[in-house]
Amino acid sequence: MSTPEVIIKVQKPETIEQEMGALHDQIARRAYEIYLERGALAGRDLDNWLAAEQELVWKPAIEILEKNSELMIQVAIAGIEPGDFTVRLTEEHLLIQSERTHTHTDERGIVHVCEFRSGPVFRIVHFPKRVDPATVEVDYRNGLLRLKAEAAKGEVARQAA
After folding, report:
1. Three-state SS annotation for 63-86
2. Which of 51, 74, 104, 133 gives the lowest tally of CB atoms within 10 Å of its CB?
3. What is the pTM of this model?
4. Alpha helices, H only, the chain
5. In whole angstroms, what is the distance from residue 74 CA to residue 157 CA?
6. Angle (CA) 37 38 44, round 5°
């Protein structure tokens, strides 16, 4: 049995700063609300930020490997159909963006426990070295997004210390 071909949209924008800025602002507003809800106690800025980030955004797990002038990136993004998320790639960054929804209906029965969440999926990855976006290869199977890209011309492989 052959595996059906999966189409992943990969966009190569000049910059992703606007999207990062909008998300940063949203998290900052929520972190401030959490600060106020917790009694406006000083010294808990990082805790408030992390709570807001976890509440607002799902950041899928990643792995970055380097072998022979290639970067291989894996992203665990199960539960989202390939056509429902966007992958943007620059020489320095990978951005994965989607919306995850989970709803309950009466015909499914009584929900006793549910740990599924709805909301935005957003993960930005800064590459350890520049890549050539024109060389990217993408594959998505069993909830795992795999990208492979060649190092940009002139990049020297970094040795582990």
Report:
1. EEEEECCEEEEEEECCCCCHHHEE
2. 104
3. 0.67
4. 17-37, 45-56
5. 19
6. 125
pLDDT in tens, 80-127: 888 888 888 888 888 888 888 888 888 888 999 988 878 888 888 889
pLDDT in tens, 45-94: 999 988 888 888 888 899 999 998 899 999 998 888 888 888 888 888 88
Which residue type does 142 have?
Answer: N
SS3 16: coil
How far is the C-alpha of 92 from the C-alpha of 17, rounded, in Å? 12
Between strands 137-141 and 144-150, the pairing is: antiparallel
